[in-house]
Amino acid sequence: MPRARVSRRVFLGTVGAAAALGALPGVGRAQGKEVRLGYILPVTGPLAFEAQLSLNGLQLAVDEINGVGGVKALGGAKLTLLPGDTQQKVELGNSEAARLIDQGVCALIGPFSSLVAYSVRQVTEKNKTPFMLLAAVADNLTEGGLRYVFRVQPNGKSMATLTMNNMFEMARAASAPVKRVAMMHEDGNFGTTMGNHVEAFAGKLGYALVQRIPYSLKSPDFTAELSKVKAAKPDLLVISGYYGDSKIIAETAAKLRIGVNALVGLANAAYSNPKFIADNRQLTDNLFDGNYWHNPQSPRARAVFAAYEKRFGSTLTSHGVQAYTVIYVLKDALERAASADRDKLRDALARTDLADHILPQDAIKFDDTGENVNATPALLQVQNGKAVVVGPARFAEAKPVFPVPKWHG
Amino acid sequence: MFSLDLLLQAVVSGVLLGGVYGLVASGLSLIFGVLRIINFAHGAVMMLAMYATYWLFTLLHVDPYLSILVTGPAFFLLGMLIQRVVIEPNRFAAEHNQLLLTLGLALFLENLALVLWQGDFRTVRPAYANASFTLGEALVEVPRLVACGGAVVMALALFGFLRLTDVGKAIRALAEEPEGAMLMGIDVGRIRAVAFGIGAGCVAVAGALVTPFFYVAPDVGESFNIMAFVVVVLGGMGNFVGALLGGFIVGLAESLGATALPGSLKQLVVFALFVLVLLFRPAGLFGGGRGR
Questions:
Q1: How does pLDDT run across B271-285, given as a tens digit for each residue?
Q2: What pTM value is reported for the model?
Q3: For site-directed labelling of A281, which of A310, B202, B274, B291 has its Cα 20 to 30 A away?
Q4: CB-based contacts of A43: which residues, under 8 Å, 6+ apart?
Q5: Does the residue A372 lie in any domain?
Q6: What's the CATH number of domain B4-280, 1.10.10, 3.40.50, 2.60.40, 1.10.3470?
């Protein structure tokens, strides 16, 4: 699979050039022909691959917009992306954010890690710079009366509760109601947040959480845990985890004949990942996953997928979709603000009502805290080697298979 | 909810995993016994061996178990090379410096893997990867059984090697009494390299054995490395047989903990055991070994 990657050298070169440019005030700034957007992503380090997927999405949207005349309300100003590398470290997140703000970006995009985001939002708030969260999922990032933080994708709570909702609606429609739920999640911040929401939501949807098992990512064996799950006889097994652990859990569940109606990923890093599905055809058939996704019914989404594939030689992922969307949200706000002033941009962002997008939701609008009020995950199921949207019903591209006979065997 | 079936399953899973822990720890223990260094790069070497297994399988369609014939000797040589180039020149450095040295080596190897092969998770799934049978009500996965069996055979073979061959005796002599060994005309420099090589070879075999049921990624060695440290302390630093037995104890503690206790407390059981042993049997359950 050919992949456009930013090597460290090229990346550092770009940063260096950008820094040099920043040191010369007036160059490219005074002419009003450029709007600078900064990203802070873990471009190098263990999440480099995922960061690259987001970066591709940003670049695709920026080039699309620049190709058709830039920001019209600003006399056709072109969007420029200035790079920042967090390496997934809090202190680098802060310093890169401050550097980019010094270089005159009118908004920051990033930074993947909730921990980094939590800290960077102080920097953006102090400097009155809009901060578009990307991939950071922790609920508390928009808390605390901040004015400059915006999040397009669902936060942890929406992700968990709406996925359970989607699952329940589907189960009711299939006349196989869900009464008992078991949950396994990695014991870090991400998994624990998901686990807490699934537990708290039990009363509202009327299910019993019969097992909740946090586990260490590094654990090489889950047979004992899954045997406990099996003994609790749940209808659903919900799994929030990363790639390797989720894979071993699914494999072991299959061997144990776990006896549930479905295995459901919750923002799972593996179960709707095209590479995971391609590598594990036997295992992945009919796996469910509630995750960030695009709207398969949208003709525009199909065009974006084609453009991405053509340019980068790989399939657009949800990381790319989120990044792509964030650029268009910013572009829409810039047009309405008719200014690259950070405060005016912030006010325009707060009034966003963007219906033309590629997400599986109604118009993008932000509430007082900066959360997208209509943000929703898609419910996916792997069918014939591909993750397809099976819920919510109005965005679905295929009928769900439920209960899944294989997991019930 | 603590039924007999769950208990049986926990015992089976624990024993199967314990064998692998034991083999990883044996290599670590041997290196400690002879070189008196704690090799933090042990897990990273295992990771490299897993990548080697992966590439042999993917590019040349070599069965993971057969690939041991290649990776075992190759990593033996690699281990000797590492010892010669990196460890030996710092032999007289302060202990904490040697510790940092192996830690640095681990970081270097992990980041090298990240650069070369990205952070992707890769898997090797030969036809028998999903083979399993039940023992009573307990599930026995064939690849895990093979890994455990292979680990025990390998560890016993090594034990025999240390007991019966001249090189093995030289290794034990060096572990027991370095100066005496030197006075007896043993080429201690070479023996140190051989010991490190054997340690690397052990962990490479362990890597190949787990690949059919695990995944390969740059940080995969950590999963086994931390446990291996616990096992080594449990079995007695430098005690070779203790390492193998310690592996089974840790494997069992982990899976019984997972069955009996809620959530991620299973790790707690293992590390509690670790602390208890350090407090009450600092020389390990089976006595501090000098190449026993």
A1: 898 899 889 888 888
A2: 0.84
A3: A310
A4: A6, A11, A51, A52, A55, A83, A85, A86, A87
A5: no
A6: 1.10.3470
